[in-house]
Amino acid sequence: MQVTRGQIIARGLANRCPNCGGRTLFKAGTLFELDRACRDCGLKIEKDEGFFLGAMAINYGVTCFGLLAPVVILWYLEVLSGRMAIGLAGALALLAPLALYRSSRSWQLMLYYYFLPQHLPANRRELSGLEDENV
């Protein structure tokens, strides 16, 4: 395979295109607008309606279990006061999904191509070349 699973993970964590590694997932000058395709290699990023529902689930999970659950635990252990815990949880519940938006979209692509690396154009070319030799 031309693009390995390790490269897919590294590119996903760095918010880069899983196919070519370019910084082209989001439109230039915007924080939240996703490009339809990579400007460098043409990889279709937004596949179908609802493709990024997984990104919403990732964002929700990281916010709830990674950020809000520790606040609740610290409140329960009486490390944080009730007011402090409510304020911190409210701020995290509002700000964390915004801060994680871009990363969760990239992580969704990373997970998709991690399990289906043969769907990347760079890997399909290599596979189609092997099929031609075997015929």
String of helices and strands: HHHH
The largest pleated sheet is described as: none
Helix content: 55-70%
Cα distance spanning the termini: 20 Å
- The average pLDDT score comes to 89
Number of helices: 4
Describe the fold and architecture:
With 135 residues, this protein is an all-alpha fold. The chain has one domain. Helix content is 60%, strand content 0%. The protein is built from four helices and no strands. The protein has helices spanning 5-13, 53-76, 82-115, 121-134. It starts with a helix and ends with a helix.
In short:
By secondary structure, the protein is mainly alpha-helical. 60% of the residues lie in helices and 0% in strands.
Topology record:
Blueprint lengths: L4 H9 L39 H24 L5 H34 L5 H14 L1
Features:
about 60% helix
